[in-house]
Amino acid sequence: MSATLRVSGLSAARGARTLFSGLDLVIGPGDVLGLIGANGSGKTTLLRLLASTGQPPTDDIGDNADGSPVGASSASSPGRPSATSSTGGNGTVATDGTVSLSPSDATIGYLPQEPDRAPGETVRDFLTRRTGVSEAELRMNASAAALAVGGVDHYSAALERWLDLGGADLDERSEKVMAELGLGVSLDALTQTLSGGQAARAGLASLLLSRYDVLLLDEPTNDLDLVGLELLERFVADTRTAVVLVSHDREFLASTVTGLVELDLAQQEITVYDGGYDAFLAERALARLHAREAFAEYAETRSKLEQRAHLQRSWADKGVRAVRRNFEMDKIGRRMAVESSEKQASKVKQTQRRIERLEVVEEPRKEWEL
C-alpha cells in the first residue's frame, strides 16, 4: 500500500544534550529523504524514532507499542509520542513531538547499520525475520489457532498482512536475489558463519526482498561491493515506497535522494533541502557565501564605528586637557572649548548607541563535510 510518514515538532535529547528539536517532515510514496550531518548529530537516533513511531527500539529491528517488531507490523497509533523518555542502545533518549503513519496499519522496515546475526539463525530465518514475514506468519498461525477454538476472527487480516509482506514466494525470491548478489551460501547456512561482506549482502538481500510501506536505511552502502551498490542504487531509485536513509556515500546520495535534512548539532539547526544532492550542495554553498558576506559587512561596519568612537573620544579628551592646561584662556575661549568637548562626548555616545543597535552577525564557523 502507499503510505506517508509524518513528523511534527519532533525533538530528541540524551541527558542534558539536545540532539535536534522542532523537526517537521512529510515523507510520501516515492520520496527518498537523506539524513546528513556530523557524527553524533542524531541521525541514527532519528531513524530509530521513526522506526518505532516514536519509541527508540530496544534492538536493531525496533518495537511497536505492543512489543512486536516494527518491521513486521503496523504503527500502533498516529500522533505518538508526546514528552516520552525511553532507553535505547546508546542510553536514555527523551523525546517530544509526534510521528504518525497514514494509513495507520502501514508497515515500516528498518535496515540497521550493522547486520544483526542471531545465534543459530540461518540465512532463511534471517531473511524471513528482516522482511517481517516471520512475525506475520506467527500472527497468522495464532489467529488460526484462536479461530479454531471460537476466538475473534483476525485470520483474514493476518493472512493479508503475510501475503502483502511477500511470504507466499519468499523462498523462491530469496534464491534468485542471493544468486544475483553472489552471496555464495545456501538458505540453510548459519548467519554467524558469514564473512563481513557476505553479511552485508545478506542485509541487502533482506532489503531487496522486502515489501514494506516505509523503509528506513542506516548506512546501507557499508561493506557492499560494486554489484551490491548498483543493485541498491537501482532499488532505491526505482521504489515507490517512502524511504528515509542515512549515508556518507556522496555518489549514492547523488543518485538516489529527492530531498535532504541536515542536522547541525553545533548550531542546533535543522535545514530541509528540496531536490537532490547536487541541488543541496549548490544551495548550501550559496548560503555559506551569504553568511560570510553578512559577517564581513557587519565586522566592517562595527570596526568603522568603533574607530569613529575612539577618535571622537580622543578629541573630547584633548579639549578637556587643553582647558585645564591653559589657565590664561579667556572666558569665551574656555566656554567654546568646553562646548566643543561636550559635543564630541555627545557624538561618542551616539556612535556607541549605533554600535549597540547593530544586529550581531556571528562569524561563520568551519562547516562539517560529508
Keyphrases for this structure?
single chain; 370 residues; alpha/beta; Rossmann fold; six-stranded mixed β-sheet; four-stranded antiparallel β-sheet; 10 helices; 19% strand; elongated
Describe this structure in words.
This protein is elongated. The protein has helices at residues 43-51, 123-130, 133-148, 155-164, 170-181, 196-209, 226-238, 250-256, 277-325, 331-357, and strands spanning 4-14, 17-27, 32-37, 84-88, 91-102, 108-111, 214-218, 242-246, 259-264, 269-274. Among the domains are: 4-118 and 212-275, 3-Layer(aba) Sandwich (Rossmann fold); 295-357. The strands form 2 sheets. A 6-stranded mixed β-sheet has the order 6-7-8-3-9-10, sandwiched between helices. The chain has a 4-stranded antiparallel β-sheet with strand order 2-1-5-4, covered by helices on one side. Helix 3 (133-148) runs antiparallel to helix 4 and helix 5 (170-181) crosses helix 6 (196-209). By secondary structure, it is an alpha/beta fold.
Helix-residue proportion: 40-55%
- The third-level CATH topology of the domain at 4-118 and 212-275 is Rossmann fold
- How many strand elements? 10
Cα-atom radius of gyration: 31 Å
Q: Bin the strand percentage.
A: 15-25%
